[in-house]
Write a structure and sequence with these properties.
Helix content: 40-55%
Order of helices and strands: HHHHHHHHHEEEEEHEHEHH
Strand order of the largest sheet: 1-2-3-4-5-6-7
Number of strands: 7
Number of helices: 13
Shape: elongated
Radius of gyration: 26 Å
Largest sheet: 7 strands, mixed
Strand content: 5-15%
Structural class: alpha/beta
């Protein structure tokens, strides 16, 4: 069932992002662009004569098909439009020309030099020319379909990051809700990411590690436990996530209890975790779907390790409580 849920979630995410169609705004901007553009000589912008002739003979405005440095300088986000037509990923463009991630980020307003704009425009036009020449009766609609395909591929690839961020947020929220419901939060620090707990404990929700517990003893604050959350489920990226886990845990002091919540644990990853001495590990789906597993996890954290509950936490006393 978890695989089905993931498939539904993935499809919903991609459908929602495609439906928002950021490319449509770029298309309208290009259609309404009134500035003067000089594409000559077309060879200098890596536009083939056959592709140019096909586009102009079809009655299409060249700017709707071929990139121009001026357009990329005036509106760097237009890179996404031409990159979509050329079916190139951001990484591929970065490898072949220069990074355009900031160009296409709606929250950034980068200054693009003429040299970089020309380099990227030439890359797009080289590929677009090849596509136009290689497709019988190529139309702009073919280009729009390429844009949608590129968006889908990118969103599918970014799904792992979305899963990881959602898993981290879900676990942190459920722990916070459980602490609040059981009146185990003595106070909040100003940033509202650090809670003062009973018995001189303190929990901070941050990153590397995602959750850190400290205790003040003898006037000193000591890290007693950490929780790292890696919700990605792609087995191919398991060892990469393991590297991040190791980096996070290697800074903890001796005697600290390090716990891992993972989307997937492969046999090789399991072996490496044993070698690292990370024995307390949980699968995300188990915690999300099983009240018993969630109770066992909370019991390990708050009854055995961070000792702020006198009675063991069980599935029964979690019923009808937030975060259960």
């Amino acid at each position: 069932m978890s695989h089905l849920d993931d498939a539904i979630w993935r499809s919903t995410l991609i459908e929602e992002r495609i439906r928002q169609r950021a490319d449509v705004a770029l298309r309208i901007w290009l259609e309404e662009y009134s500035g003067q553009l000089d594409y000559s000589p077309i060879g200098a912008l890596m536009i083939s004569e056959r592709a140019w002739k096909h586009v102009t003979d079809s009655g299409l405005s060249p700017r709707m098909v071929f990139a121009h440095p001026t357009l990329l300088q005036e509106n760097p986000r237009a890179s996404a439009y031409y990159r979509g037509i050329s079916l190139l990923s951001q990484k591929r463009v970065s490898d072949l020309a220069t990074s355009i991630a900031s160009w296409e980020n709606p929250d950034k307003r980068p200054r693009v030099t003429e040299e970089r704009a020309t380099e990227v425009a030439c890359l797009y036009n080289t590929v677009i020319s090849s596509i136009v020449e290689g497709t019988t009766d190529w139309t702009l609609e073919n280009g729009y379909r390429n844009i949608i395909a590129t968006m889908g591929i990118r969103l599918d690839g970014s799904f792992r990051n979305v899963v990881g961020a959602d898993a981290e947020r879900m676990i942190k929220d459920r722990i916070g809700e459980w602490l609040e419901h059981n009146e185990l939060i003595d106070s909040y620090q100003v940033d509202h990411r650090t809670y003062e707990l009973p018995n001189s404990y303190r929990v901070r929700f941050s990153s590397e590690p995602d959750i850190e517990f400290r205790q003040v003893t003898g006037g000193k604050e000591v890290v007693v436990a950490t929780i790292e959350i890696k919700g990605g489920k792609d087995p191919a990226g398991a060892l990469e996530r393991l590297g991040a886990i190791q980096k996070s845990f290697e800074n903890t002091p001796p005697g600290c209890t390090n716990m891992l919540i993972a989307g997937v644990i492969t046999p090789e990853m399991n072996t490496r975790l044993n070698e690292l001495g990370i024995l307390k590990r949980y699968l995300l789906d188990d915690l999300r779907r099983s009240a018993e597993e969630w109770a066992d996890f909370l019991n390990e954290v708050f009854h055995h390790t961070v000792r702020i509950t006198d009675a063991p936490i069980t599935e029964e006393n979690l019923q009808e409580q937030p975060g259960s």
